[in-house]
């Protein structure tokens, strides 16, 4: 790319400039504070894809003295093209104009302008002074309307005034912007200046391809995760047959912990794909993902209804083991009420139905061992997939501008379920059930074929979810 587009993000203090930059460059570490004047110096943040910087945004301090600045510029008697260079030369060492010098320097150097304002407050004279200063720059410029409180009673007044000073006006909430909204903003920047069309067109294409790559990687990660977890089992020697229950309990605990760690690793990998620091990622208080993977709440809320599980098993060929578990599923879910407590665990969760199979294996004369796992209910694969998809949904909707805030996006909720898999068609659910069947049976060749098919389906599903 010959010329990298650069945009200075400018506005009044505490109007959301740093939030816009953090969202556009996907950077959790950009300092954002409710106190005005936190940004003292201009900072340039490039967006790098495949090791190449493709676009950059400059986070600037807020205007400090726009009325005085505009007054000086109107009195300037030199050539209009030299007014900003003259202003910077005169006030470079003036503390009272430090912010103005910082924010106008990248504009003088050729940056485009993104003007951010809070349209939930009334228009003031100082705002008009800021707009006029930016109009005088002659640079391509867009205004972003950010209603911080959600109130829009002043929106039309703002739009009318902004149209007099800017090439384009858009609404953009940096705290809630989806990938699709970010792409539309980039498309709008492309239309600001004809000389930038080709460069910004490449940026839009690169962003779209990179997003597809992330979704493909996430689909591959979850398929690899499923292949490992669905076949997991724990085995220990059984020297004393009377201690079988004790050995089984120990193996169940060990199996649970291994699976939890696998899921935690998967979630961390998804966060990294979308440039989030896992430590700063906060789930909503009411999210089912806050529940343990093996809690009764998780298994009640996620997955499929009994009817859809039956249909999925039939579509997958209705293996005997799957049919058996479906027959007992209703009573096992009803058992949750009797288990009690918040942490059921595998052994308590499935007692009676023996969905975690405890097998006694002969190893030779006088030797035996106990095996726990793999989990032998088709519901398992849908619970795992729903937890992955729900986590993915939160990750892609978690703005890089958020700081210690909860955000709960609208979720598909069918029949009291929060699971995404409940919205899939019969064929897609059948594919998952068949993959579960062959993965737990150890049919490696068929599992590889189904995994490739499942991965392609999940790539399409993730792409669809990210466009909502």
Strand and helix map with partners:
Elements: E1 6-11, H1 17-25, E2 43-49, E3 52-59, H2 66-75, H3 83-91, H4 98-108, E4 112-117, H5 125-137, E5 141-145, H6 155-162, E6 168-171, H7 179-190, H8 197-230, E7 234-237, H9 244-273, H10 296-301, H11 306-315, H12 320-334, H13 336-339, H14 345-349, E8 356-364, E9 367-375, H15 379-397, H16 426-441, H17 444-466
Protein name: 50S ribosome-binding GTPase
Keywords: Coiled coil
GO molecular function, one term: GTP binding
Structure description:
Keywords: Coiled coil. Residues 245-272 form a coiled coil. This is 50S ribosome-binding GTPase. Helix 7 (179-190) packs antiparallel against helix 8, helix 9 runs parallel beside helix 15 (379-397) and helix 11 (306-315) packs antiparallel against helix 12. Residues 319-357 have low confidence and may be disordered. The protein has helices at residues 17-25, 66-75, 83-91, 98-108, 125-137, 155-162, 179-190, 197-230, 244-273, 296-301, 306-315, 320-334, 336-339, 345-349, 379-397, 426-441, 444-466; strands at residues 6-11, 43-49, 52-59, 112-117, 141-145, 168-171, 234-237, 356-364, 367-375. It contains 17 helices and 9 strands. It is α/β, with parallel strands linked by helices and 468 residues long. Helix 5 links the parallel strand 4 and strand 5. The protein folds into 2 domains: 6-174, P-loop containing nucleotide triphosphate hydrolases (Rossmann fold, 3-Layer(aba) Sandwich), CATH 3.40.50.300; 211-466, no CATH class.
């Amino acid at each position: 790319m010959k010329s990298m587009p650069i945009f200075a993000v400018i506005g009044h203090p505490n109007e959301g400039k740093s939030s816009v930059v953090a969202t556009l460059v996907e950077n959790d570490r950009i300092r954002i504070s409710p106190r005005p004047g936190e940004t003292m110096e201009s900072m340039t943040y490039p967006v790098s894809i495949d090791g190449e910087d493709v676009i950059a945004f400059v986070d600037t301090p807020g205007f400090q003295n726009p009325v005085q600045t505009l007054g000086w510029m109107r009195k300037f008697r030199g050539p209009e093209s030299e007014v900003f260079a003259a202003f910077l030369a005169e006030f470079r060492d003036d503390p009272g104009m430090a912010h103005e010098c910082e924010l106008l320097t990248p504009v003088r150097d050729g940056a485009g302008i993104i003007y951010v304002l809070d349209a939930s407050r009334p228009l003031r004279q100082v705002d008009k002074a800021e707009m006029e200063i930016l109009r005088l720059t002659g640079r391509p410029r867009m205004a972003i309307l950010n209603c911080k409180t959600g109130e829009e009673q002043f929106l039309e007044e703002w739009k009318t005034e902004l149209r007099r000073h800017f090439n384009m006006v858009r609404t953009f909430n940096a705290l809630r912007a989806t990938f699709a909204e970010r792409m539309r903003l980039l498309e709008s920047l492309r239309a600001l200046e004809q000389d930038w069309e080709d460069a910004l067109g490449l940026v839009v294409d690169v962003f779209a391809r990179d997003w597809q790559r992330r979704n493909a990687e996430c689909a591959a990660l979850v398929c690899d995760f499923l292949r490992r977890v669905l076949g997991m089992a724990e085995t220990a020697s059984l020297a004393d047959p009377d201690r079988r229950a004790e050995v089984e309990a120990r193996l169940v605990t060990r199996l649970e912990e291994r699976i939890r760690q696998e899921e935690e690793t998967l979630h961390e990998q998804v966060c990294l794909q979308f440039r989030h620091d896992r430590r700063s990622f906060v789930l909503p208080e009411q999210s089912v993902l806050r529940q343990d993977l093996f809690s009764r709440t998780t298994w009640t809320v996620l997955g499929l209804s009994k009817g859809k599980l039956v249909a999925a098993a039939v579509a997958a060929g209705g293996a005997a083991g799957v049919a058996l578990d479906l027959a007992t599923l209703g009573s096992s879910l009803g058992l949750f009420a009797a288990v009690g407590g918040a942490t059921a665990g595998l052994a308590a969760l499935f007692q009676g139905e023996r969905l975690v199979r405890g097998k006694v294996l002969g190893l030779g004369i006088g030797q035996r061992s106990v095996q726990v796992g793999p989990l032998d209910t088709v519901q398992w694969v849908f619970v795992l997939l729903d937890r992955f998809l729900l986590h993915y949904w939160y990750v892609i909707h978690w703005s890089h501008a958020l700081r210690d805030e909860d955000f709960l996006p609208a979720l598909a909720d069918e029949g009291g379920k929060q699971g995404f898999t409940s919205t899939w068609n019969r064929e897609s659910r059948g594919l998952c059930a068949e993959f579960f069947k062959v993965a737990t049976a150890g049919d490696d060749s068929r599992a590889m074929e189904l995994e490739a098919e499942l991965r392609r389906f999940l790539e399409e599903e993730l792409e669809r979810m990210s466009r909502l």
